[in-house]
Specification:
Keywords: ATP-binding, Nucleotide-binding
GO molecular function, one term: protein kinase activity
Structural class: alpha+beta
Number of strands: 17
CATH superfamily of the domain at 174-330: Transferase(Phosphotransferase) domain 1
Pfam families: Pkinase
Helix content: 25-40%
Shape: globular
Region (Disordered): 1-26
Order of helices and strands: HEEEEEEEHEEEHEEEHHEEHHHHHHHEE
Strand order of the largest sheet: 11-12-10-9-8-16-17
Radius of gyration: 27 Å
Oligomer: single chain
Protein name: Protein kinase domain-containing protein
Strand content: 15-25%
CATH architecture of the domain at 174-330: Orthogonal Bundle
């Protein structure tokens, strides 16, 4: 079979002079070139259509696998499929060794951390958390993680003795442990369902995209920010631990315990998701069933379909704003200014 039978190119009318040696007209940004390649006949050809990249980097996918385009005389953009492996490698380049951070405030936000100014344009604020040194394998497991229900992990810095994880700073964010222990703060079943729905959305991302478990879903690792948004904290620690999905029931059991903690204060003392008799008699059967289902063999996607979540705020967690604003007076007093001029190792307090 000759070459023309294997490949046919349909060009816009503006490019008809291409093989005549005349200059091409400026390409319309909306013009695409469809290249059909087949191992047998034009009838079985596949049309490659995706984002445009320069021709010198073009690849196509055929029925027999990936093949470079041999004829590079066509100096025009070709629509190709993006290389997912290359994109993934780019997303894992998190080491910010050449960037400086200026610590300004120490605080407890689901664990000890520092608010810091990044030495970059507009001095963005970040949250730094330092951990003991990790192995090369653990370092390779770290990757950028950004999701609406996570405290986003931007990167890390390594030294011989420690590693510093660089997180997105959630301003005026309070742990659910602090919120639930603040005077006058109460969570209804609807509030608990709203919290649970947001946590499950975050867990679905962790399980499906990061392919690990969090391993510490409780009210000390869940933040509620000033906009009422729920954020799962310390995802970097989860990546370092690298617990596989075989143990994901730990995360889902944590959501059941979390609901019990929110609507029944006595469970915060016992540490068990067993509601006291008075609370158990007054909650709906949907809530009881959800807590029971969370202890079984299930997934985040399955629990997101449970009827209990139908009583969550349908348009987002904004309904949780009263809880966080009531807790702020008891949380803002925590933290200390960090003075890098101190003689203490790495800084000090004033």
């Amino acid at each position: 079979m000759d070459r023309s039978a294997k490949r046919s190119t349909s060009l816009p009318s503006s490019r008809k002079a291409l093989h005549g040696g005349t200059a091409l007209e400026e390409q319309d940004s909306k013009s695409l070139v469809d290249i059909q390649i087949s191992n047998e006949s034009p009838a079985s050809a596949r049309t490659v259509s995706n984002n445009l990249i320069p021709y010198s980097h073009a690849h196509v996918h055929t029925t027999s696998g990936r093949r470079d385009i041999q004829d590079r005389s066509l100096a025009i953009p070709l629509p190709v499929r993006p290389d997912s492996q290359a994109l993934r490698r780019m997303s894992t380049q998190l080491d910010d060794a050449d960037i400086s951070y200026i610590k300004v405030w120490e605080l407890d936000q689901a664990g000890r951390g520092f608010i810091a100014l990044k030495d970059a344009d507009r001095l963005p604020l970040v949250l730094l958390k330092t951990r003991s040194s990790i192995t090369p394998k653990q370092r390779r497991s770290l990757r950028r993680a950004l999701h609406q229900n996570l405290v986003g992990l931007y990167g890390f810095q390594c030294s011989e003795a420690s590693i510093t994880l660089i997180y997105r700073l959630e301003l005026l964010a309070v742990s659910l442990a602090c919120v639930t222990n603040s005077p006058g703060v109460q969570f209804s079943e609807s509030d608990a369902a709203t919290v649970c729905k947001e946590v499950l959305l975050g867990l679905d991302y962790i399980h499906s995209e990061l392919e690990i478990i969090h391993g510490a879903i409780d009210y000390t690792n869940i933040l509620l920010n000033i906009d009422g948004e729920i954020k799962i904290a310390n995802i970097g620690d989860s990546m370092i631990q690298g617990i596989d999905l075989g143990s994901r029931t730990l995360d889902l059991q944590g959501t059941g315990t979390l609901i019990a903690n929110l609507i029944d204060p006595t469970t915060r003392i016992t540490g068990e998701p067993t509601l006291c008799d008075d609370v158990a008699r007054n909650i709906s059967s949907m809530t009881s069933d959800f807590i029971k289902k969370s202890r079984g063999d299930t997934t985040a996607k399955s629990l997101l379909k449970h009827n209990f979540l139908s009583i969550a705020t349908p348009t987002g967690p904004w309904s949780l704003k009263p809880q966080v604003t009531n807790a702020l007076p008891f949380s803002l007093k925590f933290g200390r200014h960090w003075d890098s001029r101190s003689q203490d190792i790495g800084g000090g307090y004033i």
